[in-house]
TrEMBL record:
The protein's name in its UniProt record: PHLA1 protein
GO biological process: positive regulation of apoptotic process
Record SMART domains: PH
GO-annotated cellular components: cytoplasm; nucleus
Gene3D superfamilies, per database record: Pleckstrin-homology domain (PH domain)/Phosphotyrosine-binding domain (PTB)
GO MF: phosphatidylinositol phosphate binding
Main location (coarse class): cytoplasm
Native organism: Poecile atricapillus
Intracellular or extracellular location(s): Cytoplasm
Xref: InterPro entries: PH-like_dom_sf (IPR011993), PH_domain (IPR001849), PHLA1/2/3 (IPR042832)
Gene it is expressed from: Phlda1
Superkingdom, taxonomy of origin: Eukaryota
Biased composition (Pro residues): 42-58
């Protein structure tokens, strides 16, 4: 997402519930873009360092991309204590649980960007359909 030139809308820390048996809360550095949400382990460097001859696949291996095209909803589960707990539901049905301090408003920011993304996609689809209809309806001149 960042490689495609998407600008960061919001950056900061979020806690993600792990999938394992213990379901521990793990801090992730998050970057919200117009295309989706990037989850980066907190110790991961923002840019691959040039002095390290690491293979190109390794630095991005732990970065998780939650693209809005694969996201169905963002459900605000509850506000408890200083945290807001919310779930991102992916198109294939996978649910990813997050929490953040209430004043950070991550759930609202993610929801807003997802809605704007889906609206842009719907507008593009309508334009594409109209262009196809106009092309088919246009009279073809003599050949």
């Amino acid at each position: 997402m960042l490689e495609s030139g998407c600008k960061a809308v919001k950056e900061g820390m979020l806690e993600k519930r792990s999938d394992g048996l213990l379901q521990l809360w793990k801090k992730k550095r998050c970057i919200l873009t117009e295309e989706g949400l990037l989850l980066i382990p907190p110790k991961h460097p923002p840019q691959p360092q040039q002095q390290q001859p690491a293979p190109p696949a390794e630095p991005t291996a732990k970065i998780k991309e939650l693209h809005f095209s694969n996201m169905k909803t963002v459900d605000c589960v509850e506000r408890k204590g200083k945290y807001v707990y919310f779930t991102v539901v992916m198109a294939e049905g996978k649910e990813i649980d997050f929490r953040c301090a209430q004043e950070q408003g991550w759930n609202a920011a993610i929801t807003l960007q997802m809605v704007q993304y889906k609206n842009r996609q719907a507008i593009l689809a309508v334009r594409s359909t109209r262009q196809k209809q106009q092309h088919l309806a246009a009279p073809h001149g003599p050949r």
